[in-house]
């Protein structure tokens, strides 16, 4: 198979996968922040670091 | 719905045919896949900003909050043009595909005969072009009227149209997949995969970028959404994800739509589809499925009108916001009494749409829209970085993007590359875009700058006094932030020593923080205590150094001071710290933490250093880096007056080898470290904090360099210097150096 096709398929798949992963990840972040109550960026990040 | 409606618009229908002709079958799929990823990066920036600033105005609003009047005017100005040009493009696409359908159905044959042009392809083409332009203008004005009637009608029509277009476009994609399953030989259409080379992708990505810009419209509707902090970011992210999947499906369908060797297709399939240019997708759909022509025309009618509706809405809101804030004449801010819509902005927008639709070729219209959106999104990606950095303690966020600021930086780089590459597609776009931007700069400079209304987020100068005329050349500008008389008395001694060593010009600043519930016009009531503080420090220092004083008011002291540093081009900031730790969300305090993080100059934080103290021996814990070197320099200056000594102290924890003598030798000239009165000491210990605190008992001053934290960890746990600062009761100085690329970037962003 042509190398270009292999690279193209990999790039397309990775791009689509990245879009889907980011959508799922961002949705989880939005829901988490909404459930905890919206705060300032510093408060949200501090809470996140403390949980870790 | 509105964002989705705007994305599945003309961009994809025009883009498919043009892109497959430019980049080939593989390039077509990759164009939409990579553009989807790039759109997701920028959508995340829009989502974060919309969740923090859920107000109508979109990108213009973000720039106003992040960068102030000038940049926000330019952003709003670009947003207005980008949306208006995109509106023209959608109107033209509607007209092109409708006329094409009418011609193929032979509905215009009678007209051709009547005009005596039947059988003359050149005259037919000219006639078609005129019909397309007239139909495009009529369509645009229909939707301008719908927008004039008000948002409820707009929303209902938009929702119905969006549903229709999504169903039609998905149907085309599904047909493509079914065709490939039934006849796998069509997959051979993907060979050659990239017939014109990989670089063509950059051109087609730039050209079709406009097909992904619907989330900008969602941001425009900021204050009309229910629970905007949650729903706006979700709407933006979902719409990008959905359209990326749909576009890839449709691109696949376009490639497999025709079979080499069938009627009229002699060369490669991609060449055949590409040869039709902007109507290439129509030819693909026609051959892909039964009634393909009709289905495609219906899809184009639905999607183009939906996108046109959304762009007119967006362009009107952008120009209305400029008029509302007095950056454009009041005409733009007129609201119709009956329909409650901004009819002045609507008239101006229809003017741009009319001119662009009638004057420019379709490909140049699409390129102009894309290039303007690329510039606009570039600004928004800068805004998200700037606003998260400077207003992290002020704004309430409903969404924070992960791995900040990786995605906005990647988006900025990609957008610059795509915008540059678009010159290969349309030179006219690259002429129009700068002309519009420079016209905007001129209007701002000569009209908007002096008329713009003040917003709540701005920092204003209340009172400014220069006690010496101008800063003499060669003088080192030092800014001292004064809070009150007590704080001023703590700062005098060290400031005097620093100013003497640096031959400084002194800028005394008092920031008045006005609570949110109090009008900014009442700020003067809060200035008295600051004036006393400034007077206290003036009494002692004005006779020795040139001094200027400024009183400003703002909603946030840290942001106000950082803004003043940038404006005054200050090289060193001196401020006091009371020593009380705010452990809730800050490491040292709500003012100190942001100032240390964001200041683009050297920062010297003094704790308990006032009251004519003598500094005979200073301890400087060092572990490398420019902050440690600056700490040695500051310690040299502060102890010099008392003929004291400085001890550079390092702790060998066994984790990281550090040569203290070499560090001093490397930095002594660069940082003006007095090596004559410098001692060195290294101890072995497991805990650096404990070792330093134990050693500090024998000294009368501790000077610490802060730790340079990576951007991603800025709001993390306490660093070693912060731990020491919190635990010691000795006079303490914390310093941060401004050397490096990071500080240079901070000066601008």
Task: Provide an overview of this structure.
The complex is a heterodimer of chains A (52) and B (749). Chain A contains two helices and one strand. With 52 residues, chain A is mainly α. Chain A is rod-shaped and about 50 Å long. The N and C termini of chain A lie far apart (46 Å). The model of chain A has no long low-confidence stretch (mean pLDDT 88). Chain B is of the alpha/beta class. Chain B contains 26 helices and twelve strands. An eleven-stranded mixed beta sheet of chain B has the order 2-5-4-3-6-7-12-11-8-9-10, with helices on both faces. In chain B, helix 23 links the parallel strand 9 and strand 10. The interface between A and B is large, with 30 and 45 residues. Strand 1 of chain A pairs antiparallel with strand 1 of chain B, so a sheet runs across the interface.
Mean pLDDT of chain B equals 85
Number of helices of chain B: 26
The spatial strand order of the largest sheet of chain B comes to 2-5-4-3-6-7-12-11-8-9-10
Q: Please count the helical segments of chain A.
A: 2
Largest interchain contact: A-B, 30 and 45 residues
| Main beta-sheet annotation of chain B | 11 strands, mixed
Task: Catalogue the unreliable spans of chain B.
Answer: 710-715
Please tell me how large the radius of gyration of chain A is: 18 Å
